[in-house]
Structures are given as structure tokens and as C-alpha cells.
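Halobacterial output domain-containing protein
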Amino acid sequence: MSRPAWRKNLTPVDDDGGQTIYYDEDRGTYHTWCDDGTDDLASTAVVITVASVLEVDTDDLERLSAAVEPDALNSLIGHWRRADMADVDGRITFPFATCVVTVHSTGEIVVDPEQRVPSVGR
């Protein structure tokens, strides 16, 4: 997975499982991309990226399904990637393992470990 040229402020910090993770010092966020040319699943990329950011094994994270339905996430991102979504800024944001995760229609995954996870029902 390669970093788009327009994101020059991203510094590679990890290459976990062949997935390069970049850090944006200005925002304090971590970024990676689902590669639409392979069988990379958004749900797998989210789990690998969050585990890397939190410096834990993927088995030590809560189940992704506690935050979002993995098959639905994969389907949505797959639909966005197959469709011509150049004019649309689709995204889904959800809390996962003390982070806030945003997956964009471009395949970009942004993990914010510093953002407060909103409380539900308050």
C-alpha cells in the first residue's frame, strides 16, 4: 500500500504484516490504506492498524464486531471502491479499542488514539 503523493506530512512508522502505517504529527493520527488491487479487507486493516498503534497483539483487542459489523464494513468499503466515488467523501467513523477510527471511501483508514471516544446514551 502506498502513500498518496498529496499527503507529504505522513511519516512511515510501522510495516505490520505488509501494511505500512503512517503517522501525521500535525494531527496526532495514524493512517493506512486498503489496497483495492488485492484482497485486503477494511476490517482486517482496521484491526491490524489499531493493534499496531496501541502496540498490542491483535488477539488482545476487543472483537471488532463489538464496534461495527465487519462484513458490513467490508461491503460498504468494497462498494465505495468499485463505484466511481471521486466526487463523494463517504466515510464511516466508530470507536474501537479506545481509539476513534474513520474509514474513508478512498480506502484511507485514520486511527485517532487521542480523541475521546463518545459515550453512548449520555
